[in-house]
Amino acid sequence: MITGPRFSKWKLVLLVLASAILTTNAIAQLSTATLFGSITDTTGAVVPNATITLTQTDTNFVRVAKVKDDGSYREEFLPVGPYKISVSAPGFKSLVRNGVVLAVMQNAELSLSLDVGTATETVNVTADVPLVNSGNSTIGQTVSNVEIENLPLVNRNVDRLLQLVPGVQTVSTINNLGYQEIKVLANGSTDGFVGQVSYYLDGGLNMTGLRNSGNQIPNPDAVSQFNVVTNNYSAQLGRYSAAVVSVITKGGTNSFHGSAFEFYRDRNFNAVAHNAGAGAVKSPYNLHRFGATLGGPIRHDKDFFFGSFAGYRFRTTATNSGNLPSAAQLAGNFSENMPSDITKCTDTPSTADNTNIKFLVCNPATGQPFANNTIPTSSLDPTAVNIVKYITTALGKETKQPFRTGDTPYTYRVLEATPEQNEEYLIKTDHQITSSHRLSLSYFLLNYSIRNNLGGFTQAWSYSNYANKQQNANLGDVWTINSRTVNQFWLNYTRQNGGRIPVTSDPTKKTLADFGSDFGVVGAPSLPNISVGGVQGFTLAQAITGPKAGANVYNVRDVLNTTRGKHSLYFGGEAGLEKDFQLTSLNNYGSFTFSTTNGAKFARTTNGLSDFMMGVPAGMGQDTGLYANANWYSFGAFAQDDWRILTNLTLNLGIRYDWQQAPTDPQHMTSNFSPGVQSHAFQNVSIIGTTSKLAPLGMLFPGDPGVPVGGAFTPLNHVSPRLGFAYDPFNNGRTVFHGAAGLFFGGISGNEWEFPSNYAPFAVRNSGYTRVTSLTHPYSNDPTEFPGGVNPYPQLMFDYKNSAATFLPLNQVVTMDPNYRWPYSMQLNFGVQQQFTNSFAMSVYYVGSFNRKTPLYNDINGPQFNITAAGASGASCTDLTKACGYANSSATVNNRRPLNSMFGNSAANPMYSNVWVIRSNQNSNYNGLQVTLEQRLTHRVSARGYYSWSKTLQSNTLDATSGLNGTFVDANFPQLEYRQRSDQDRRNMMTMSFVWKPDYFDGYNRVVRTALNGWTVTGIWTANSGQPFTVTTGNDNYFSGLGNNRPSIIPGKSPHTLPQSSRVGEMKQWFDTTAYCRPGTDAGCAGVGPLGLLGNERPAQLDVPGYRNVDASLFRSFNIRESLQFQFRGEVSNVFNLVNLGTPSAAMNSSTYGQITGSGGSQRIIQVGGRILF
């Protein structure tokens, strides 16, 4: 029975009252900063009648405040940048403090002391704010403009510098939907279509909720700085639960300033990959990044502008390969492959046969070898013959690449171009409208495109053009109401629109039907994906495409700050509307697999290539496309008190309430599943191959009793209490203890919420057809797959408006748990900051993050294992331990699914395959020690670094970085939720960065000064331990349809990596492969579970090799004239050309088992460039 969430208003009242006692840290200002402190005389007595004037020296922005009776002051929502602080009071000398620089989201303390004297006397001091944070308990870090402009950025992507922040475990940029996504994992957070990090640009949301990923940000010449908060951030922020990344672009000043730049990379600058092999030739590689910036005043001291343009052009090639049939094979003559040592189709080929490409071609109808290993011309599949002729002709126009070691006489290698480009535009204006109102406006536009090659013979078959357009518009206003009250308002709009368009090399060949097949595509035309296995195999690749994917995001936020005595109070809220969209064809083009093994019902020829030439696939998949939408509103309200209870103790107390609507689709394309319950939501239902007028039993839809429109009930109890403190025990501003605890609710991605719409009845997806007649006539007359022997896909229809739905047998279904709960995180920290000198500080923190209610897709219809020799059968079979009489094999996977033999359904004619239910039942824990060091510029050197020692544990099926598909539940063997290491668990992580300006030659003659001064050397050193991986058998002994069972550990052995004296030795054998055996395959191998067929190995016990890297840059600035410079730059990634190894082959049936053949990072890459600065 489906029920709504149980919620008591009294629980909410109690929770709110408790939260008033246990609340949060300082407010996070996404584009501004806070400055506070106290004014005293030289004896330490407060000066209550002082006036403090803050002047931002770039724009002459001024804020004047009166010091309170207790000598304290606090100023909120200050523009970032350099400041001059002036303090005056009767009976004291005036004080001017220069060199104060405020950073984004900084909560800086600056306490000043006045000397007795007259106001006409002035004391000038130059010094920055302290390095320790005495204002709040937030853990995070600001990456300054000095670091952005000086540290090596070979890719010119600012997000690369996120690695400088402790707690950030992974930073990656991917493009799977037609637009680029930034994904950050911090302090054990997960991703997998969920996303737990918020991204902001100039104070406005800069992310796409389709997968909760960050959007692209402007080029480094346009970025001022960015801040990353990784633990116990403000109550103002509540959209996601792991971290906040806030980027601020540059702005205009009273002086015109800007830059023009060009950066270049070429293959001649790059090192050859360590695993490329002897004689490897570098692929063509040509990259240009160029652009310009300009900022300045519109009206002096009043209005300012800043603009930026940047372009990117990248041309490279990739070598793709495959095997093509010889002329004789194309005619069906495989006599050249006739083995000499086997004569029967049931014989197992020897290793020598496989090495020398020898195999028997067998008649599928008789199971006997063809005479002379030759397929009669009449038995060749005309579609297959047409495809090979077409590919051969197309490849004949390409330049064939040289053979490599390991290639066969059938190998064909060609180069494929992969052009990529973008253009970005930024315009930003700031306006001091009145003395009370400061308005900021910004607009960012990015156009991006890339040709996405799919592998195999892409250039002769098909590829995809990816293109996207990103837009960000922000409006912000800071209103100084009076000396004690300031309000900040923000409005923003973000749009991301990407697309993936399939392109065929021949416009006349759009689908498989153009080669003579009966296969029918529903929706946008596209060529199929064909995979031919075996040593002579090849791939004609295709991928999911769709012209639209992205989101429109609207958000408004308002924060009011008022100071009352020792309390700095914040009140505010935000509201948002997100509209995600995805128009996709899915796998409507068809996917065909030709394997190297015999089949059961539809026998095959024993070799993938001869199977293909006869058009006898081992399996086929086909989908229908869809246009899915996920729309939702969100609201948040918060209150906070930064209470300076003592001069050396600040409490950060706050509370937040969030309401995020369960996303809805305009066509109500979502579902629930309740076994045995009948839906009556549709008036017109058709199940192909049956006479049923009712939806398949168990599937429920909006309109059925108890089924929410969004698939799940919107929770009402997202109350987030947070508490933090900052304590300076010696009241000297050099030693500060911090501690905090808080609750942080996350959000749901649109892609996750749209998953039900990707499956029956909204879109039909079936990748498990195994009884296909041929490539030319794929739709067999088998009642379980293609009733009537015709293509059923044109008949499939979902029409919400007319209450109509169509279903196929073997429906693959994804549904929502109606009682699904949003993920949340409980965060803790405790530690100390110590400033040893005016320029050097250190911090040591314990950081904990405990993620709960993370989603997982559980298959409730997993095939049951038959533990008896013969179980009961028939429609009345409900004993799951007997699997209804079907033997355990890959052919009976769907027959052994329990929902197909219960509630009157027939196991012989199954209605369902997978039934995935999206549930919120997974957890992960992060515990870490994080140590940071910071050295401000002293003796021309500045440096910063961190070391973290941590452990991340998770539920056994939770994957931090990919889709969240879980294991099925077997009544015979309820698989334990092993707590295991996360796939992002790196026990040790260390990063150090430095900027060195060796201008030590001012006292020398002009020649020496000119030659040796003006250089800058910078670097980033990274060292991380490896991530865990799991050894697998590579096969499906348990016949679950999932494959890759875990092996058992041989008694007396233990899993461990092998110490090697060289990288070559590590590549040959990374771990002890003799420690494992395969239950049910290897003699004497003991397993667990039914019949002992499951391995006893625990997951994630071994680590991949660690990662080491040093990036460096060297540049020199030349003065052309006053305020005009030319800067020549050389930047190097992996300057020492260190070899980082990839993940070892961990499948026991692999020919490279235990070996490392891939790379864990690129070899040395050099970039040269020039900048004109003014």
UniProtKB/TrEMBL annotation:
| Matching SUPFAM superfamilies | Carboxypeptidase regulatory domain-like, Porins
* Gene3D superfamilies in the record: Carboxypeptidase-like, regulatory domain, TonB-dependent receptor, beta-barrel domain
- Could you give a single Gene Ontology term from the biological process aspect? siderophore transmembrane transport
Give the subcellular location. Cell outer membrane
Give a GO cellular-component term.
Answer: cell outer membrane
Q: Where is the signal peptide?
A: 1-28
Which intervals of the chain form a coiled coil?
none
Q: List UniProt keywords, sorted A-Z.
A: Carboxypeptidase, Cell outer membrane, Hydrolase, Membrane, Protease, Signal, Transmembrane, Transmembrane beta strand, Transport
Per UniProt, residues of the TonB-dependent transporter Oar-like beta-barrel domain are 248-1167
**Primary residence:** membrane
Q: What is the protein named?
A: Carboxypeptidase family protein
Question: What is the phylogenetic placement of the source species in the record?
Answer: Bacteria, Pseudomonadati, Acidobacteriota, Terriglobia, Terriglobales
